[in-house]
Specification:
8 helices; 153 residues; mainly alpha
Length: 153
């Protein structure tokens, strides 16, 4: 079998198995060539947004891949390279909204505040820009799963 055909078969297996396997594990532990393969990385972040941390630096700057990642897991924005992206505001809004909508037993507000502090600390965006351009567009955090259960019960 030719090397090209074998590579195509291997890629097809990886893409088909992405839903079953953890995309981050494939990028972290697999052949490093997959970290720079746009199709493989896109599929990986669709299933696990945090897989973005194992993508190549080039793909960490790809706005389409970043958006897929943060829509799956808002915390993926921490591994994205947003510095030169025109649409970084939209990406941060998507990430924030994802974090706000995660249901969990701990206080959502604390998680959201931690998320905001992390994006400031890591220099993803300046506080003034967040307050002026992003904050007015954000969803309010949803209630925790525990609060929702109390209402039903």
């Amino acid at each position: 079998m030719s090397e090209g055909k074998q590579g195509d078969d291997e890629k097809e297996i990886i893409l088909k198995g992405m839903a079953k396997w953890n995309g981050a594990d494939i990028l972290r532990d697999g052949d490093p060539k997959w970290q720079n393969d746009e199709e493989v990385v896109t599929e990986a972040v669709k299933h696990n947004g945090l897989a973005l941390m194992y993508a190549s630096e080039e793909l960490k700057s790809n706005p389409d891949i970043i958006l897929e990642a943060v829509e799956q897991n808002g915390w993926a924005v921490m591994d994205a390279n947003l510095r030169n992206l025109e649409n970084r505001v939209n990406i941060i809004i998507a990430a924030y909204n994802n974090v706000c909508n995660q249901e969990s037993d701990f206080k959502i507000k604390g998680m959201v505040n931690s998320f905001i502090n992390d994006i400031y600390r890591r220099g993803v965006i300046k506080r003034e820009k967040f307050e002026n351009k992003i904050n007015p567009q954000l969803k309010k955090p949803t209630k925790s799963a525990e609060e929702k259960k109390k209402k039903k019960g």
